[in-house]
Structure to design on (311 residues):
């Protein structure tokens, strides 16, 4: 029995070490970049591997490989856990960004959360008709609502709600077979200066076509954000973790930064803190941000509860 357990441990260690190596070269191919989303999990698998090598009294090469795997993955992922999400001073704008998932029928629960969150601006990904009806009931709180209901049935729709009037609002599908984008410019919210909010839902890069379309989305987003002459926030489900080459592409194309680098595992909710962070707020300009996670409300994503300070 111990012999078979040892063989299984060798196979698992080889797979984990290979995945770790692949993730480091994510910029070279879309399928390599998929491994970069799971550094935390490969690190934990390495810890289990080290413990298992002690059980089978293999403290040589197998132990060393697992230890190296832990070290490499820790170098990548631990800075996100060590980063603290500090309170922002003089926060004057609050946002909520949430992928509610198009199969989620817990509308009452979601609407209750939005009422309690009481944000100034709300970005909703994948709303269906029943969710838009629910959001219509919030017009006393959010009189300004803009929806793009394109492809409800496959989770492409997107909505933007605001307590405050926008100077302008536009929507566009930047790339075929990808979710549309909404962007709005505000003259002022709660005493802030002018700024823009871009509501996005990036294409899943789980195959070559998806990765290509996500990359093109990032390039087209960059054209939109380059037209702004005010600070802006780029918020939503980006289907990329901060450790991935895909995420760095979004940052570089839109010339944004990730202001709060703490670990916010937003998907899937069933894994809690052991999920992966694929929902984000990115900024350009003098903007300070503090992020917290809201309740799942029947979705497979946790919402981002975002406090923003803008001069």
């Amino acid at each position: 029995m111990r012999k078979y357990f040892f063989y299984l441990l060798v196979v698992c260690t080889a797979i984990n070490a290979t995945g770790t190596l692949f993730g480091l070269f994510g910029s070279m191919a879309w399928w390599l970049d998929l491994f970069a989303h799971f550094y935390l999990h490969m690190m934990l698998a390495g810890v289990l591997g080290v413990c298992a090598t002690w059980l089978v009294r293999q403290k040589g090469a197998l132990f060393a490989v697992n230890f190296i795997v832990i070290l490499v993955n820790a170098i990548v992922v631990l800075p996100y856990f060590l980063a603290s999400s500090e309170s922002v001073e003089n926060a004057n704008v609050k946002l909520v960004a949430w992928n509610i998932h198009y199969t989620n029928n817990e509308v009452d629960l979601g609407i209750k959360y939005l009422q309690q969150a009481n944000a100034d601006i709300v970005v909703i990904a994948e709303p269906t008709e029943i969710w838009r009806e629910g959001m219509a009931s919030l017009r006393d709180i959010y009189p300004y609502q803009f929806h793009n209901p394109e492809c409800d049935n496959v989770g492409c729709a997107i909505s933007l709600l605001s307590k405050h009037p926008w100077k302008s609002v536009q929507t566009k599908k930047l790339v075929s077979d990808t979710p549309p984008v909404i962007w709005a410019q505000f003259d002022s919210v709660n005493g802030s200066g002018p700024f823009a909010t871009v509501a996005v839902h990036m294409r899943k890069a789980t195959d070559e076509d998806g990765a290509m379309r996500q990359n093109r989305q990032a390039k087209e987003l960059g054209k939109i954000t380059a037209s702004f002459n005010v600070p802006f926030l780029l918020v939503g489900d980006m289907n990329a973790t901060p450790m991935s080459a895909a995420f760095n592409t979004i940052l570089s194309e839109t010339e944004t930064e990730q202001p709060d680098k703490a670990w916010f595992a937003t998907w899937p909710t069933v894994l809690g803190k052991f999920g992966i962070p694929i929902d984000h707020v990115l900024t350009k300009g003098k903007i300070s941000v503090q992020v917290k996670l809201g309740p799942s409300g029947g979705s497979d994503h946790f919402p981002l509860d975002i406090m923003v300070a803008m001069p």
Q: What stands out?
A: Residues 90 and 309 are 6 Å apart (CA to CA).
